[in-house]
Specification:
This protein has 124 residues and is mostly beta strands. Helix content is 4%, strand content 49%. The protein is built from one helix and eleven strands; from the N terminus they run βββββββββαββ. The chain has one helix at 102-106; strands at 3-7, 10-13, 18-25, 33-39, 46-51, 58-60, 68-73, 78-83, 92-99, 113-114, 118-123. The strands form two sheets. Strands 2, 4, 5, 6, 9, 10 and 11 form a seven-stranded mixed β-sheet that branches. The longest helix has 5 residues, at 102-106. The chain starts with a strand and ends with a strand.
């Protein structure tokens, strides 16, 4: 059974930092592109960042470019999202996702697996 389990969410002040983790099990982790999405209250889920299987190729939503960094450790079956200079508009539930490649993840078209999410709240 495939599981993606997010952790690291919490309450942080604007301007602060958080690192989210997503631990994967039940799948060949290094065969998948991984990504992060978020969903704010009353809004649709939106793409945040994705990384290819090797970790050498990344892509970000414009709203987080330069502030967030996605990375992965295939030895630990874990993908990370390091969030810096957080803003109140970053408040959302953050979801981990696995897909065939970064295009699939970026376009949210045919994602294979989702985590259940972790809440990030940024206070202004």
């Amino acid at each position: 059974q495939v599981q993606l389990v997010e952790s690291g969410g919490g309450l942080v002040q604007a301007g602060g930092s958080l690192r989210l983790s997503c631990a994967a099990s039940g799948l060949t982790f290094s065969s998948y592109a991984m990504g992060w999405f978020r969903q704010a209250p009353g809004k649709e889920r939106e793409f945040v960042a994705t990384v290819n299987w090797s970790g050498h190729s990344t892509y970000y939503a414009d709203s987080v470019k330069g502030r967030f960094t996605i990375s992965r450790d295939n030895a630990k079956n874990t993908v990370y999202l390091h969030m810096r200079r957080l803003k109140s508009e970053d408040t959302a539930v953050y979801f981990c996702a696995a897909g065939a490649d970064t295009l699939v993840v970026r376009e949210n078209h045919g994602i294979h697996y989702w985590g259940k999410g972790t809440l990030v709240t940024v206070s202004s």
